Amino acid sequence: MKDSDENINACGGSLTPNMTDDNVDVVATGEAGEVDAKEEMDAKETTFTMKPEDRSSGENGDANNPAKRVGSASEAFEHILFQVGSYGKWQWKIFFIVSFCGIFTAFHNLSAAFIAATPEHWCHVAALDTLDGSHDLRNGSVPWKVGWEGKGEFSSCTYYNRNWTGLVAGGLTGDDLPFLPTSDVPIQGCHDWVYDHAIYETTAVEEWDLVCLNKYRMSFIQSTYMGGVLAGALVLSELADKFGRRTISLVSAVGFLVASVSVAFVTPYPLFLIFRFFVAAFGSGIFLSNFVIIMETVGSEGRTVMGMMYQCFFAVGFMLLPAIAYFVNDWRSLQLWISIPSVLMLLYYWFLPESPRWLMLQGRYEDALKILRQVAKTNGGSLPPKEELDVLCDSVEEEIILLSTPNLRRRCLIIFFAWFVVSMVYYGLTFSGGNINASPYLLVFLSGLVEIPSYILSCWTLKKRISRGNHTVFHLEKLKDLTCAHEYTVAVSNRFDVLGALEDPEELWDTFKRETLQTAKECIGERPRSRHGFVSTETLEKIEESRAVKLPGNRDQHRALSRRTRTLLGRDKKRYVRSLAEDVEGPPTAYRALKKLRSKTQSRASTIRAADGRLVLDMDGQMARWAEYFGQLFTVDPPIEQLHTSGLRAKDADPPIDKTAPSQRSQRGCSKVEGWKGSWCL
Predict the structure, then answer these.
(1) 147 CB contacts (<8 Å, ≥6 apart)?
(2) Where are the domains of the chain?
(3) Number of CB atoms found within 10 A of residue 59's CB
(4) Choosing a second label site near 470 at 20 to 30 A (CA), which of 28, 214, 517, 601?
């Protein structure tokens, strides 16, 4: 067995690696001879230590120069991960190790619903403290007003400015308070309050009197917290790219524990806000770093499931928080109860590995392959032979920059905006529970409970790839007209008036959906939509117009509209082709897309190979292979002797190509595609 510190050098002979969709065979020719079984076993146990810059260009010049290679770290790692097991026991073990952090971050993300809850309160009149406590001292001392729901209630911020000390000295009792005259009595704002402890024993709002004139200060509690989430996502994510996901996760876990415990003991209100800011920042670092570790260690076939199930742990914390708050009514004690369990995240030091993908990108191949051997051992896979590891690791250069192309920028901006809107609604509903006449504990618990089936349903939907054509599209641009927007607002308000009389939740939900859709249809109107994404709204409207004139029998107008429709369809298809070309981020993506279009079975190969089985990593070679393969889609198979060279023991690199000649219609359609040569279709 070779020593674990052995450096892997380029082989003297020529290597001809061949990969089909299911296996990898490597046969060496020339001076190196064939690789026997013992050498292959040793190759799997060898540690790779050579860096790309240490290799010479070799006889092939730029073809073997790492600076000229196009293969990215992502593609090289995907190929190795597929060999060792990209979705198995090891991935699930890491998933459960890192996912429980979502429970602790959910505790603090939503804790303001209880530690900063605003209990019922009213002005404190010190002179009335000597009266019998069995009476409601608000009668006669606090004005009566109409609440935001149209219901009467006692004022929270004003009281009747009487000579209360003289009245009490003159024999005023609690029974006399309701009969005191209130007309022409001046009303004054107060600076001291009495809080109702029926639901909460103490809250941060009560401790710092964040009500009435000081109510604006209460909004800082959650706004500074969400600012910490933003700061942590921006700063710690960059640090995770530089120092490693595991390192930032461990540092964030320590900071998260210290800051969250400190919140329970601070006295000044500004310090309370500062420590909550750091709780949010470090919590964001933990949650995002662990999520990236999961996504970087699992194959594409498991990312949808694990990505959605990762959010379920956040929902579990969402449900556990009101259960804890129900039994712990003091806000400082509650803060300790939800902070101390975070000490479990310190166990990451012993159980959480670094992302092997990140290690590979940093050139730390020994550390990456050490983890990948553990993956292979747990999942029952094996590392590729050392010669192929040499080629794959040599292809590592840089990761794709997220905003490097117009399409990626556009999609990212859309996702950012959607996330912003969803977060506004999500946290708005959570923290507005006090405005609903129901138990706040039950409301928060149910809000977390409904998340779990929604994540499962979303996971199933993404796996099934439900068509976007099922969505209803309305003319939302009409809402730019203030008159239309006002009419829509009034119509929605009138529709919702009928919901108050409904008590059955199922009937209430069905009525809500029906009334909302009907109102939108009447006030805004639907837009015609096709299940084919490339058909524009203008074309759809022409199709509807053509159908409308066909019914009365206006043949001339119908033919004119039909010709216009065909012209628009052709234009839409050309735009669609251009957008597809822009979406292709590299030759590997295009090559795999073409193979997937031709075969019903999904290929799991992650690299481009030539027809004779050689691994193609340079840009020019990949582009040539892409063009060659695309041309073969419209031709017959080449002679078998062109696919096999002497001494090569391998199967065909690609599945058989359909020998049936394309129809004339297919040839004409291909020749019309802008920028493509019609001769490829012949």
Answers:
(1) 153
(2) 89-115+215-380+432-463, 121-195, 474-523, 537-582
(3) 8
(4) 601
This model's pTM is above 0.90: no
CA distance 79 to 499: 56
The Cα angle at residue 284 between residues 278 and 290, in degrees rounded to 5: 135
- CATH number belonging to domain 89-115+215-380+432-463: 1.20.1250.20
Paired tokens of 503: 């008590």
CA separation for the pair 69, 394 (Å, rounded) = 8
What are the residues whose beta carbons fall under 8 Å from the beta carbon of 352, sequence distance 6 or more? 94, 97, 98, 246, 249, 250, 293
The whole-angstrom separation of Cα 624 and Cα 614 is 13
How many helices and strands, by DSSP H and E, does the chain display? 27, 10
pLDDT, tens only, 8-54: 333 333 333 333 333 333 333 333 333 343 333 333 333 333 333 33
Q: What digits encode the pLDDT tens for the residues 459-486?
A: 887 766 544 444 455 555 566 666 776 6
Joined together, the tokens standing for residue 646 give 């002497």
Fill in the amino acid letter for 76. A
Structure tokens belonging to residue 96: 């459960």
- d(C-alpha 355, C-alpha 372), whole Å: 10
- Kindly state the average pLDDT of the residues 423-432: 77
Residue 652 has pLDDT above 50, yes or no: no
Q: What's the CA gap between 217 and 208, in Å, rounded?
A: 10
What is the number of other CB atoms lying within 10 angstroms of the CB of residue 485?
14
Task: Supply φ then ψ for residue 193, to 5 degrees.
Answer: -135, 160
Please name which of 80, 70, 77 lies closest in space to residue 621, comparing C-alpha atoms. 70
Q: State how far the Cα of 389 lies from the Cα of 538, in Å rounded to an integer.
A: 53
